[in-house]
Queue: 2 jobs
Job 1
Amino acid sequence: MTELKLPSIDYAALAPILIMLSAALLGVLVEAFVPRRLRHVGQLSLGLLAVLAALVMVILNSDDRLLTAGGAIAVDGPTLFLQGAILVLAAMALLLIGERSVERGGAFVAQAAVTAESADDRRQAESSNGATEVYPLTSFAIGGMLIFVAANDLLTMFIALEVFSLPLYLLCALARRRRLLSQEAAMKYFLLGAYASAFFLFGVALVYGFTSGIPGRPAGVDFATIHAAVAESPASKVLLFAGMALLAIGLLFKAAAAPFHVWTPDVYQGAPTPVTGFMASCTKVAAFGALLRVFHVAFSGAAWDFTPVLGAIAVLTMLVGAVLAVTQTDIKRLLAYSSIANAGYLLVGVLAPSKDGLSGTMFYLVAYGFSVLAAFAVVTLVRDADGEATHLSRWAGLGRRSPFFAAIFTFLLLAFAGIPLTSGFMSKFAVFAPALDAGHAWLVVAGVLTSMVLAFPYLRVVVMMWLSEPGESTPTVTTPGGLTSAALMIGVLATLVLGVIPGPLLDLANGAAEFVR
Amino acid sequence: MSNFPFLSVLTVAPLVGALVVAVLPRRRPDLAKQVALGWSLLVLVLSVVMWVSFKTGGDRLQFRESYTWIPQWDARFTFAADGIALVMLMLIAVLVPLVILASWHDAESSKRSVPVYFALLLILESTMIGVFAAADVFLFYVFFEVMLVPMYFLIGSYGGHQRQYAAVKFFLYSLVGGLFMLAAVIGLWVVGGKTFDWQALTQVDISTGTGRWLFLGFFLAFAIKAPFFPFHTWLPDAGGAAPAGAAALLVGVLDKVGTFGILRYCLPLFPEASKWFAPWALALGVIGIIYAALLAVGQNDLKRLVSYTSIAHFGFIGVGIFAFTTQAGTGAVLYMLNHGLATGLLFLVVGMLVARRGSALISDFGGAGKLVPLLAGVLFFAGLASLALPGTAPFVSEFLVLIGTFTVNKPVAVISTLGIILAAAYVLWMVQRTTQGTLNPALTEIEPMRRDLSLREKFVVAPLIALIVLLGFYPKPVTDVINPAVRATMEDVGRTDPAPEVGSVQEAHR
């Protein structure tokens, strides 16, 4: 019998992940043992502290370039950069989730199990504070995302995918208002997400089959083995292509790329807005982090084969996002379609097989995350007696009622439209330039053309806010509490600073843009 | 004094002024106006000092400054001005104070914040200066796009009838052009060795096919901006809806970015493509001259009429640029300046008339000269300047363009000449229907229509009239500045002026 050898584990390198997951477990204990009135403050501080501690560990580890846990986790430049990005954005999202002064009791329902629209439900909507389970759920999701971007084999990646997806399904269902819509969104997200996971898992199996049969090398799903197999496996290429396609479906679903995007508008609209912001920023970072690693490390040898297909998906995604955004009448759905289009621009960056392409994509993820979180923060503030007023017609004349917030939102929309002096322009340049450098002129042209289309819906909102007269039903902007203000200010300032002096972050991204193999 | 960082200071100064004006209390609109005016006059003084320190025989690009910005992409804050840019900067510096003075009461009628209106004007000035002063393609692009934002709000928030539609149309058209240019800018960066420095990029050899595509990207943006036929449809809407002051800046300066961009970027960076596309560009110019003039004849809205005349004039500028002779090129650049003065004046005067009447329709006027003789006289003068009457500045430039074109391309020159006749038609007919003839009885009932030019308005029109007359008789100070820059640009394209054909003249004498 061969001796079982335990893999060595570098606990320091894994610390961010361990911190987030233990905070999540601790959060469950807090739910069980801490009196109800203290839970909100306790949970929020626990969550923020854990994120902060994990961020500190990421910064301390910033020079690590290693594989650990038996090669299952890679701690390298992209991992650390993206983990840092996820943690910073998650901190902002936690601030939004923790806000309770905008709406009495917060944006979350007290007991999700109470039948929606029943008498009990109305009572709890009136008076009860929101559930505090959202904090451990968020912590689990963050922990899962941290593993997802670090996973160096497909099985670890699959587990990370589930760890961060399941809490998100639940979080989507916890809105205080419009609960049926919220539950429908969660159901849809869960069902489609389960399918996507199944596709991913099937893809793993096929790729495993493809890696068998290389002389002197056992079959496996770690990226080094796959990389070697792409070059020299005797197995049929059909296994490789089918496996790659199925894996891509699973990942592109999370990234909200067309044609796997259909869940996005419904889920973004139904989910509690802070959770929507969390998904639009952090999930996007995690999904693209994984896409980058899978396609740049494991399948880089097959770039000739996947580039045309993923390129076509990128064009389709940009087109679908931009064109359908034009027809939207709900601000959250509009931002959802804009997020789909942005997934397309990000894919353009993913397909540029250079260091610049990698760093540009990572820059884009961070810049977009800040802007989109700030945008959803504004959405949480525009409200009337029935909660958030998300229909666009209700935003007419907002510039007159609350010029400050309308100005902020205008600035964010200009950033989404890619007007210079905002991070949106710099990030577009950061992904388009390496793509053109790699000879993908068609992707850049498609990106530019769809940007033109996409400018129209953004501009329509600006016109609504500033150039229309306020109507009877124009809601006022609630004065945000400290938490939302903080998140909003961080997001807006980051959008401005990254748009004016992107150098430092680009430097950081450039320094991080190399995978360990 | 020549070491003073003129261009960066000129770019930043109006922005600082805008911030100051914006934070002034809404309750005291007069203070905001005075501060804005004072600030723009300061900019004017600084520009005059810069003009004086410009060495006409010196380097092509002067006042060069360069600061690190984004080292990863080699994008820098590089400012530098050649003669062409200098002239345009001067035009901005002269026009903005006059526009502020002319717009004194414009913002009040719109029920919106008055200080913000003047802050937007100053932000616009800052971005316009930046776009002409940039010598880094990335920086140029940034200003080119950012320029849209203040103008969008000026039209959209303070404009007249159909202002939302006009503002959105203006923004989308310009953005579409800008995005085409973005693709070309990235392409230029990739083939140009990953630098944005204009001077370095002029030395790069670009293959024929690539050069033509990149030229097209830049040219589209500039043709929309200028605007050339058939990309012009946004201008009558924007010009018609914008408040008169903003409209004067829109056609007077903002649109010149298009023709300036062609001279500074298309021609020197893509000489081969410029020559290849020249016949098409000339055709667009000629069509623009005739077509826009015909449309102008048919307009019943004063501001739209002036917008259409501008499109016709931009046709002349386009012809002058793509004729590739020093004479025509100098004429085109001079035209850019003179058109800014003449059309700026025309727009401001029309704005004064429209503000009094409360309508921009020509049919609502008639015989207004009997009520406001001085204003009618100024309108007549502005009209004459706009149709390039000898003795006014535009005549010099139009004549230069035509003779410069005639030496190389007779058909284009001949057809363009028809534009002069049409110009007489639309200007004189407009003047006749508004200020001459029997008095429209409705006008006498409108109290403001009985007030002739106020002292403030005299201060607005007097400098422009003086400049138009002065440059009409003695354009040398300006041509001295323009000429070397134009000659250098033509050398970049590799075209020299044709030698005079002595033989044929002698034969004709026999």
Job 2
Amino acid sequence: MRLFLGNLLLAFVWSLMIAEFSVASLIMGFAFGFLLLWLFQPLVGGSSYFGKVRQIVRFSLFLAKEIVRANLHVAWHVITPSSFFKPGIIAVPLEPQTDFEATLLANILTLTPGSFSVDISTDRRVLYVHVMDVENAERTRWELKEQYETPLLEILRS
Amino acid sequence: MTLYGYPVVAVVSLLAMNLLVVAIFFAVVRLLRGPSLSDRVVALDLVGVLAVGMISVHAVFTGQPMLLRVAILLALVAFVGTVAFAFFLEKRGRE
Amino acid sequence: MMAHLNDLLVCLFMLAGAIFCLIASLGVFRMPDLYTRMQAAAKSSTLGVVCIILSVAIHFGDAGVTTRAMLVIVFLFLTAPVAAHMVARAGYISNVPLWHRSVADELRGQYDAATHELASGRPSAEDPRG
């Protein structure tokens, strides 16, 4: 947390130095600040912060790739005749979650290929997901949990 | 950079505008045909989002960054409209 | 050279965005039922408009426009799935049928008709992770 604030401060200082205050300059400042803190790691300590930032960056890149893949998937479904579709609503069991985590997970599932979250049960134990190709319901359930829920909770909770 | 004597960005934004017009056409067909009210709401939401895209393309075409604010406002209004429609549908389903 | 690269990026993002928007609309036009239509609408229209707004940000390139564009992008990524999710839920509650060739509907019978509370009907014993 202390290192995160320091990193934000460095990003702010960077944008003041190059006399341009925008999202792009702040992101660039954050990246340079991160590099600086990483170089001085023996002095500032806190290796968990660096691991976490790396985790977040990796998950974001993964999500960006999945979102593009989701669109190619939709394009493929638009050009194939609908007799090949096997849509269906399946229930995905969830780890116990807060409102924020559940919302984020539902949004991520909606934007990624083939899945679309319809509703979450009132006790937040099960997320009902509409899936475009249900080949094997058990496997789809497991894949959705493994690919999206596990890394998301790892980032949000540790 | 120019293409046939015109700035290439202008040519491409015209092309993109035409693609978006075709897209809005199909969405409006679904809006008119949709078997259930929910289908119409989906189509209407899509028309709103496509209009945001059209305004942004127009901003590039005319070189007016001010138009981006219009796009922000339209995105906000389209979201609130869709949520209101969803509430209405759910209330109606309960009765 | 830099200006050319800028123009190229603007063209690329704008065309990609317009094509994704067209895919979304074609999907909404031809998919067989409400839920498959919403899949197309929620995924493709979001990425399409985000690409177009990114191209606007690259084209103007000044601080105010970039900041505002980032705002719209974050807003779209957060709200488009929420809106789609609400419409799908309302559609299911008001008995919009699934496509007749759908292979599974584990949501059937889980809603309480009066309060719209949703039960979590599946026992977790079927969780394949064991």
